[in-house]
Each structure stands twice: as structure tokens, then as C-alpha cells.
Design a protein that fits this description.
This protein has helices at about 20, 30-45, 60-65, 75-85, 110-120, 150-160, 195-205, 210-220, 250-260, 310-325, 335-340; strands at about 1-5, 15, 45-50, 55-60, 85-90, 95-100, 125, 135, 170-175, 180-185, 235, 245, 265, 275, 280-285, 290, 295-300, 330-335. By secondary structure, it is of the alpha+beta class. It has 3 domains: about 1-70, no CATH class; about 125-205, no CATH class; about 210-340, Trna Endonuclease, Chain: A, domain 1, CATH 3.40.1350.10. Strand 3 (about 45-50) and strand 4 form a beta hairpin. The longest helix is centred in the last third of the chain and has 15 residues, at about 310-325. The chain is elongated, with a radius of gyration of 38 Å.
Length: about 350
């Protein structure tokens, strides 16, 4: 059975069934009246506001206000989401601003800063035997691990001086160098005082991974050390048509500069410079470039030139002395010479 009603918009009479009235329908005689009524009603409730990003004026209907519209376009909406989802933090090592996700916990701008920060914050210990301050290797360092000796030599000397520590072990003589060394109870099968002597006994020659042997391979261009935190590859010189290995983006930039300057250069110069680190241990260093057979160049970031990180200050001093004795010049290439803006 249909009931007679008047349209809410135009006032015309029309008929509606009972069940539609129970459902809350049957207020308009047709769809056109329904749409016209909605449009006129919403226009009266439109509010003018400003875009949060660009500041332009926008018209907000009741529905748009309900869903929280704050921007005038999709581009502004994306910029707002990007701003809310990112944050700026300072690198712990170089204090450079880093843009990261708001939920991320990032404190270093790259792997290099992380590495040098860890090196600079390695805890230092006092050797029980010689009394020298030393820092533990990153690979063996542990939060709760304690280090008592700077080397195996000091450890063996201390154990000889205090026999009370030798209850469970004994003193043996190395088969290669004939020096005495302490062996714990569970390691009585050891016949050599160090890995160097063990390699020498097994191969009949020093370990090829030793410092001097490795430096010779690097200076001859037969071995290229791989580092995961730097840009690496091969560059062919325009002048000599020879392929040279670069271990960082700074070295590649310098190779291109030297080619543009029209000078001859090489990394396979066979020059090895010996120096002593802060502990007095003998080490070896291979400069980056030999230019025109008269100039040795070392490419380094400015912050690391006079730093004790990687023994850079000791390498520089030894290189200057070597050049003075052999009639060469030494210069350090930093971001200033490479034209890199920090």
C-alpha cells in the first residue's frame, strides 16, 4: 500500500510504500530533487581555509572537513606527508645534517663516519707488563671483555716474571726463532710462538699477508685492498692508456684532474715508506700517487690529515722525511684541491 507525501525540495505530491518510510527514505519525489537539495545545502556550509603547505585558499565542504583535508592539491599533500615522515638529525662524527625517516634511529651519515667514530671511541687499557696505554682491536673488542696486555710478547714476558700464573701450563721453545713462550695446559701441541713463525715453518717463507710483503704487492699494483665503505674501481689514464685502481671517489677525482693537467702519474711506483706508530711498532705505508717521477701525493679528507686515526700523522711525517732524503716533494691533496664543497 502506498502513502501520499510531499517532496522535501519541490513540494510536489508523490506516493511511497510503507517499508521505504520505515527505512527513512521517501523524502524526495525523484533523484534530481535529491541532488539539487544536497548541493544547495552543502554550498551553504562551505568554509574557506588556507592550505597548510603553500598557503593558497581552499573551500572545504562538511565531508572534506570530516576527513581532515588540509591541502589544496595532491602535490601539497605529498609534501606534507614527506615532511611528517622525515626528520633532520646530526651525524655523531662530522655533525652533518642527515635526512631520515621519523621512525628510524640513524646517527651517522655514512659507513666511513661510523668506522672512524668507533675507532675514536675504542676503550684504552694499560698493559700489565710494559705499562703502555693501548686500545683493543675492533674485531676482538667486547663490552664485558678485559684486555691486560698490548701484545703476546708482553703476555709471555709477564707470565715468565710471575710463575704463579703458570700452574696449568709450561714454557716451550719456538722451533723457528728459538724464543721461549708460555703454553697453556690445553695448548701443549703448540710449537711456535706466533702465527708468523708457524707460517714460516709450514711454507719455508714468511706469510704473504705480512705487512712488508703486502705493502710490496700494493706498491707494485699486484694487490688492491678492498674496502666496502668507499667507491672503488679502475680508471684508464688518457695520457698513458694504462688502467689504474682507485680506492675512493677522492682518488678517482684526482686521477681525472691529473689527466686534465696533462701530467704523467702512476700508483704502481714501488715506493714503500717505513714508519713507527704510537706504540713504537714498525709499519709500512704506500703513498697514493707518484706525479712526474718527482712528487709523491697522498689523497685524504681534510679532517683526517693530521689525525691519529689510521696513523695518518705518523705516515705524513715519515713521507716528508723520505722525500727529503730522496730528492722528492710531498703534498697532501684534500677537498680544497679537488674542488669538493663540504
Amino acid at each position: 500500500m502506498k502513502i501520499k507525501r510531499n517532496c522535501k525540495y519541490c513540494g510536489e505530491e508523490f506516493y511511497v510504500t510503507k517499508h521505504k518510510i520505515k527505512e527513512g527514505k521517501g523524502l524526495y519525489c525523484c533523484k534530481q530533487c535529491y541532488t539539487d537539495y544536497k548541493n544547495n545545502n552543502s554550498l551553504q556550509k562551505i568554509i574557506t581555509d588556507n592550505c597548510v603547505v603553500c598557503g593558497k585558499g581552499i573551500h572545504l565542504t562538511p565531508y572534506l572537513r570530516k576527513i581532515g583535508r588540509k591541502c589544496c592539491s595532491v602535490e601539497c599533500q605529498r609534501k606534507l606527508y614527506t615532511k611528517l615522515r622525515t626528520k633532520l638529525v646530526l651525524c655523531k662524527f662530522c655533525n652533518k645534517e642527515i635526512k631520515t625517516k621519523a621512525s628510524a634511529v640513524k646517527v651517522f651519515c655514512n659507513h666511513t663516519c661510523r668506522k672512524y667514530y668507533n675507532i675514536a671511541h675504542i676503550p684504552k687499557y694499560t698493559c700489565k707488563s710494559c705499562g703502555i696505554m693501548f686500545s683493543a682491536n675492533l674485531r676482538i673488542r667486547h663490552k664485558n671483555h678485559k684486555h691486560y696486555f698490548c701484545s703476546n710478547v708482553c703476555k709471555f714476558a709477564y707470565q715468565k716474571t710471575y710463575p704463579a700464573n703458570q700452574k696449568n701450563g709450561k714454557i716451550k721453545r719456538c722451533d723457528v726463532c728459538k724464543t721461549e713462550f708460555y703454553v697453556a695446559k690445553g695448548c701443549s701441541h703448540y710449537n711456535h710462538c706466533s702465527s708468523f713463525c708457524a707460517n714460516f715453518s709450514r711454507r719455508g717463507k714468511p706469510n704473504p699477508k705480512g705487512a712488508l710483503a703486502l705493502s710490496k704487492l700494493v706498491a707494485d699494483g699486484k694487490f688492491n685492498p678492498k674496502r666496502n665503505y668507499y667507491k672503488q674501481g679502475y680508471y684508464t689514464s688518457v695520457i698513458t692508456n694504462k688502467s689504474e685502481y682507485y680506492g675512493s671517489s677522492y682518488e678517482l677525482k684526482r686521477m681525472q684532474q691529473l689527466d686534465n693537467m696533462g701530467v704523467t702519474w702512476t700508483k704502481k711506483h714501488k715506493i714503500i715508506i717505513g714508519y713507527k706508530d704510537e706504540k713504537g711498532k714498525n709499519r709500512y705505508y704506500v703513498p697514493d700517487f707518484l706525479v712526474n717521477n718527482t712528487i709523491l701525493e697522498e689523497v685524504k679528507p681534510f679532517r683526517l690529515v693530521d689525525s691519529t686515526i689510521d696513523n695518518n700523522i705518523y705516515k705524513k711525517t715519515a713521507a716528508i722525511e723520505y722525500c727529503r732524503n730522496n730528492g722528492l716533494q710531498f703534498r697532501t691533496i684534500t677537498e680544497k684541491e679537488l674542488g669538493i664543497k663540504l
